[in-house]
Amino acid sequence: MNEKSASPERTKIALRIAVIGGGIGGLTAALSLRQAGFTVDVYEQAPELTQIGGGINMGPNAVRILRRLGLAAGLDREGVRPLSTHQRRWQDGRTLQRAPLNPLCEELYGAPHITIHRADLLDVIASGFPAENIHLGHRLTGLEDTGEGIEAWFENGARITADILVGADGINSAVRAALFGEEASVFAGCVAYRGLVPVERITDLALETGNQSWVGPGAHLVHYPVSRGRLLNFVGWTEHDEWNREDWTDRATVARALAAFEGWHPQVRRIISAADTCFIWALFDRDPLLRWSLGRTTLLGDACHPMYPFMGQGAAQAIEDGAALAGCLVTRLQDMSRANKTRFHMRDGPAQEARDAEWARAADRSPDALRWLYDYDPAQIDAVAA
Ligand SMILES: Cc1cc2nc3c(=O)[nH]c(=O)nc-3n(C[C@H](O)[C@H](O)[C@H](O)COP(=O)(O)OP(=O)(O)OC[C@H]3O[C@@H](n4cnc5c(N)ncnc54)[C@H](O)[C@@H]3O)c2cc1C
After folding, report:
1. Reduced to 3 states, what is the DSSP secondary structure of residue 43?
2. Peptide linkage before 266 cis (omega within 30 of 0)
3. Residue 1, pLDDT above cutoff 50
4. H or E segment and range at residue 258
5. Catalytic residue (choose from 43, 193, 224, 374)
6. Smallest CA separation from ligand 1 atom 20, residue
7. Catalytic residue at 43?
8. Which of these, 319, 313, 332, 339, lies nearest to 370 by C-alpha position?
9. pLDDT at 185 over 80
10. Where are the alpha helices (DSSP H) in 8-114?
11. What pLDDT does 373 receive?
12. Could you give the CA distance from residue 149 to residue 103 in angstroms, rounded to a whole number?
């Protein structure tokens, strides 16, 4: 927990928020909300913060948000900036399209496009949030909105109360089930073979630092560098009629992955065969929800809008949700305005002196301290929606 927040210390807001799920979406939301002045605790079922799986593409829309949260140094350290995105034909390798990514994204959108190992990304996000407010080994099993607050309970016997509860607990969200009822996710007819290859094993391919995707009949394969460029991540998607396991870490053999990409371009097969091991993962889906919030509880990320990873935007949208949620909690202004009635009208005495000293120290009316308020531009949201 060493990443320094870029935001100034904020006035504390008397609302306790419980975030269920310490994945990319949950931790980003927790960090955004904390920086907006809320008291936030994260409850994660796993005994440690972990993201199984290899790499992830982070478009500039997500990187921009993470940078604003003070995470630029960590992203620069761990992320790779691909020079281009290149789509090729499965068999002959012909270029179908190719476009520059960096530094163009920075020029166009104020942030780079990066590729990064999931575990590194999660570490970077977690580094901005106090470890003591992340409660590991807490698997949510139920919740109740009492009207006064939210009560939630966990498999380990713990019970908590909060003013607001955020369900960031992924595609099989227990919070979602508690709000809107149980409904099984549906197999989407695709499985992925994924692996990580040390780049020194494939120097003969002379790969540019970039994102390449190969498209072919009933399948496609994507590869890009992660782990500061030391590893090449690949994910090869193939269509299947049925699947009876749902586990990101199910092992497959390299031979099985090669068989799935039989007849594909030598570069594709060379990359797969350079892996020590391969994992297999099935894609699941859900219909869109009509609403994401009920009373004091809201959902974000895969808990409310899981999407196919074929735009590389699932995690990015979870990151956007977290930032938007902090921006939406405008009751902060109501709280602060109400508190100011008392603070502005104090009789002379110790409380007034403490207030004067606090103002002399923190200047909470300065434009800099009010950046969270003055920076917000709803026109930007309208432009995107249009
Ligand atoms: C192969 C593949 C490639 C992808 N590539 C990209 C990409 O390039 N770019 C991109 O933006 N997206 C990508 N995605 C999508 C992305 O991974 C997801 O959209 C993203 O991880 C969702 O984040 P989340 O925080 O909402 O959920 P999750 O990452 O699923 O996190 C949920 C967390 O909640 C915890 N949890 C679950 N239940 C409970 C409970 N009852 N109590 C407490 N904690 C609980 C879990 O342990 C987990 O830590 C890809 C997905 C796949 C499968």
Report:
1. strand
2. no
3. no
4. helix 254-260
5. 224
6. 315
7. no
8. 332
9. yes
10. 24-35, 60-66, 72-78, 104-109
11. 57
12. 47
